[in-house]
Specification:
It comes from Hominisplanchenecus murintestinalis. This is Restriction endonuclease subunit M. Keywords: Endonuclease, Hydrolase, Nuclease. By secondary structure, this protein is an alpha+beta fold. It folds into two domains: 2-159, DNA methylase specificity domains (Adenine-n6-DNA-methyltransferase TaqI, Chain A, domain 2, Alpha-Beta Complex); 181-346, DNA methylase specificity domains (Adenine-n6-DNA-methyltransferase TaqI, Chain A, domain 2). Helices cover 27% and strands 25% of the residues. It contains nine helices and 17 strands. The chain has helices spanning 8-11, 24-27, 98-112, 124-128, 146-170, 180-187, 197-200, 286-300, 332-346, and strands at residues 2-7, 12-16, 34-37, 46-50, 56-63, 74-80, 86-91, 131-136, 192-196, 201-205, 221-224, 233-237, 249-253, 258-262, 267-268, 274-278, 319-323. The strands form six sheets. It has a four-stranded antiparallel β-sheet with strand order 2-7-5-6. Strands 10-16-13-14 form a four-stranded antiparallel β-sheet. It has a three-stranded mixed β-sheet with strand order 12-11-15, with no helix packed on it. A hairpin with a 4-residue loop joins β13 and β14 (258-262). The longest helix has 25 residues, at 146-170. The model has no long low-confidence stretch (mean pLDDT 91).
C-alpha cells in the first residue's frame, strides 16, 4: 500500500459547529433526545441532551480549547447540536463515509497527541494545515483509496468482536441473562431529594504539585489533573507523603469540571481541584460514589465551565439530587445495587 501526504484543508472545510446562543440550563434537559457535543474529551464529546432541533450531523468534531484537545477528535454519527469552541470538519467529497472518517480520526489524534493544551491552543488553522498520510490507489499519485480505509476499519471491528466473544466465553458470560433482581433495580422509578453537597461531604482543596516539578512515570502514585480522559490520571509519580491526598473519594478538576471517583491515594496538579469525602465513612464504597459522580455531573456539569469554574467557596451553596428510600433517607443501598447492575448489563 502506498501513501501520500495531504493537508487537511485540501480535503475538509473546518469551521465552528452551529450552536444555540443559550445558557447550559436552557440548552440541556433531562428528557432530551438530541446529543449536545461540547468541549469534553469524554463520552464522544457529548455532555448531555436537548430537545432543540439538531444543527449538525455525521462529521468529525474537535475542541479548540481544553487541556486535552487532541483527545476531543470524534466522529459524530447521526444528528447532534454544536457548541461554542467545537469545530466541525466538513468533507469536500461525498466519499468520506463513517469508516473513512473513523480512520482519519485516529490519525488526527496520533498526529496531535501531547502537542496542545490551554496555553498552546489547537486552533482550526493549525488543523487545516496539518499534514496527514492517507492510502492511495495503486497506479495513481493522488487518488485516495477510500475502499482500503473502509476495509481496514471493518477488519478491526471484526477483530474486536472476535476478542470480545472469546472473553465472554472464557468468562462464562456468553449465554447469560441479567438476574431478575438486577432488572428490577434498573427499572425502579425512584424518588429523588435535593441535598446540600456540604451536608453529605467534607470538601477540601487538594495539594498542588506543578507538572514542572514531577518526573513522569517515576512511581506508582496517580498524578491527577483537571484534564478529561483516563479517569483524570495524567501519569504515575513518586512524591513525598506530605503531597499525597487520601483516595476513596470524588475528585473534581476545578477548572474543567472533570468529576471522577478516585480509589487510590493520589497527587494533584492544582490546589483549585477539590476532593469530596463522604461524611458517613461506612458509605464510602466504590459503587455508591460512582453513582454520585454521575449525579454531580448532571447538576454541576451544566453550571460551571472554564470561565466560571467551581471552587471550595462556591460549592458551599451547591446541591445534588439523590435517590431516597421509604424513610425519606438517602438510599445508598439502591445506588450500590444500581451501578453493579449497570456493570453486569454491560457484559
Amino acid at each position: 500500500m502506498n501513501y501520500k501526504s495531504f493537508k487537511v484543508k485540501e480535503l475538509f472545510d473546518i469551521h465552528p459547529t452551529k450552536a444555540y446562543k443559550l445558557t447550559n440550563p436552557q440548552l440541556f434537559c433531562d428528557n432530551g433526545k438530541v446529543p449536545v457535543v461540547t468541549n469534553t474529551s469524554e463520552n464522544y464529546g457529548r455532555s448531555g441532551y436537548s430537545n432543540l432541533e439538531p444543527t449538525e450531523h455525521d462529521i468529525i468534531t474537535f475542541s479548540d480549547t481544553g487541556t486535552k484537545s487532541p483527545e476531543s477528535f470524534f466522529f459524530q454519527e447521526g444528528e447532534f447540536i454544536g457548541y461554542a469552541h467545537v469545530q466541525g470538519m466538513y468533507p469536500y467529497s461525498n466519499k468520506w463515509g463513517k469508516k473513512q472518517l473513523l480512520y482519519l480520526t485516529t490519525i488526527l489524534r496520533k498526529k496531535t497527541l501531547g502537542l496542545y493544551d490551554y496555553s498552546t491552543k489547537m486552533t482550526r488553522e493549525i488543523i487545516s494545515n496539518l499534514k496527514v498520510e492517507l492510502p492511495i490507489i495503486d497506479g495513481t499519485t493522488d487518488e485516495i483509496d477510500f475502499d482500503y480505509m473502509d476495509a481496514y476499519i471493518s477488519e478491526l471491528e471484526q477483530e474486536h468482536i472476535n476478542e470480545l466473544d472469546t472473553y465472554l466465553k472464557s468468562s462464562g458470560l456468553d449465554n447469560c441473562e441479567l438476574p431478575d433482581d438486577d432488572k428490577k433495580i434498573l427499572n425502579i422509578k425512584k424518588k429523588y431529594k435535593e441535598y446540600k453537597i456540604i451536608d453529605i461531604f467534607k470538601v477540601v482543596n487538594t495539594h498542588s504539585i506543578l507538572q514542572s516539578q514531577i518526573t513522569k512515570n517515576s512511581g506508582k502514585i496517580p498524578y491527577l489533573t483537571a484534564a478529561e480522559g483516563n479517569n483524570a490520571v495524567s501519569t504515575y509519580i513518586s512524591c513525598d507523603k506530605e503531597w499525597i491526598d487520601e483516595g476513596n473519594c470524588i475528585f473534581i478538576g476545578g477548572k474543567t469540571m472533570t468529576i471522577t471517583y478516585q480509589e487510590k491515594d493520589f497527587c494533584s496538579n492544582d490546589s483549585h481541584n477539590l476532593a469530596l469525602y463522604l461524611k458517613d465513612t461506612s458509605k464510602r464504597e466504590k459503587y455508591i460514589q460512582c453513582f454520585i459522580v454521575s449525579a454531580l455531573r448532571k447538576t454541576l456539569g451544566i453550571k460551571y465551565y472554564w470561565g466560571d469554574s467551581i471552587s471550595k467557596k462556591k460549592i458551599q451553596s451547591d446541591t445534588v439530587f439523590l435517590p431516597v428510600n421509604e424513610k425519606d433517607e438517602i438510599d445508598y443501598d439502591y445506588m450500590d445495587k444500581y451501578i453493579k447492575a449497570i456493570e453486569k448489563s454491560y457484559y
